[in-house]
Amino acid sequence: MFDDETHLSSQDLEILDKARQASKDAYAPYSHFRVGAALKLANGEFVCGNNQENAAFPSGMCAERVAIFYASAQFPGIPIDTIAIFAQADEFETDQIVSPCGSCRQVISEYEHLAQKPIRILMKAQKSKILLVEGIENLLPFGFSPKHLNF
Description:
Cytidine Deaminase, domain 2, single chain, alpha+beta
């Protein structure tokens, strides 16, 4: 846990800023809660996504999955090194770290399994401290993976 951004490396600052910028363009007309995600891939490329809401609420998608699925489509087989997640609300300033939802945690787990290496996850909200975890097992200790299917 970091109190503020002054304790981050320049690389972590860069990816967190990309997530912050992505959050500004989120489509959040219902919740007014904007989340941006930025991925740094093993090849040095950055991919961003943001939450996409829908009037039929289950049809929307979280920022993390938007970014991960786009990265997989555009850069197939390239592992994800780091995911940065930034959250902000339109109507108040949140001081609570926003972590990936259960569905996003499961998707992150799948991509860790594919790459056979942990993904760093950096999380921050408007006025929160910064949390960095090394690997999804720290957020999803009993995740379901292909090993459960005998693959």
